[in-house]
Amino acid sequence: KLFFTDYGNAAKVERCDMDGMNRTWIVDSKIEQPTALALDLINKYVYWVDIYLDSLEVVDYQGRKRHMIIKGRQIRHLCGLAVFENYLYTVNSDNLSILRINRYNGTDVQALARLDNAKEIRVYQKRTQTAVRSHACEVDPHGMPGGCSHICLLSSSYKARTCRCRTGFILGSDGRSCK
């Protein structure tokens, strides 16, 4: 799945398959300008920062169990968000500090360090690096991913795929070759 925020005409947090299909709104109310987004891949939660509402919230992958982690002025300048164990890590773009926020109670907020020009933060954890199983976009004997001449995108499961073409090309009637 692909998770993303949008604050165009109607602000929302959404998810879809990697090929863009099955687009689903997870959050579409009481939300104004969602920016930073992070996933708890183990427990299947989505965290986001709304810089207009000065809030940091969480919801499960289906849009249920929504609740506020923290709200107020200390959220105003946050960009970038990552989850690791009991904490959320984020960057305060106003003073370029890395913050650690307890994701269960929101009261334990600590500035850890300052980094010049930091705008994003990532945490890499071995438990979230799942073993790769065979999937529909594996390279075929002709060197084409999933049998696609240009781009292979996983669909609703690791067994399904959709072929796409680079800019300036159109997908042929076979659903795999680009012209």
UniProtKB/TrEMBL annotation:
<feature type="repeat" description="LDL-receptor class B">
    <location>
        <begin position="1"/>
        <end position="43"/>
    </location>
</feature>
<feature type="repeat" description="LDL-receptor class B">
    <location>
        <begin position="44"/>
        <end position="87"/>
    </location>
</feature>
<dbReference type="InterPro" id="IPR000033">
    <property type="entry name" value="LDLR_classB_rpt"/>
</dbReference>
<dbReference type="Pfam" id="PF14670">
    <property type="entry name" value="FXa_inhibition"/>
</dbReference>
<protein>
    <submittedName>
        <fullName>LRP1B protein</fullName>
    </submittedName>
</protein>
<dbReference type="InterPro" id="IPR050778">
    <property type="entry name" value="Cueball_EGF_LRP_Nidogen"/>
</dbReference>
<dbReference type="InterPro" id="IPR011042">
    <property type="entry name" value="6-blade_b-propeller_TolB-like"/>
</dbReference>
<dbReference type="GO" id="GO:0017147">
    <property type="term" value="F:Wnt-protein binding"/>
</dbReference>
<dbReference type="Pfam" id="PF00058">
    <property type="entry name" value="Ldl_recept_b"/>
</dbReference>
<dbReference type="GO" id="GO:0060070">
    <property type="term" value="P:canonical Wnt signaling pathway"/>
</dbReference>
<dbReference type="GO" id="GO:0042813">
    <property type="term" value="F:Wnt receptor activity"/>
</dbReference>
<dbReference type="GO" id="GO:0005886">
    <property type="term" value="C:plasma membrane"/>
</dbReference>
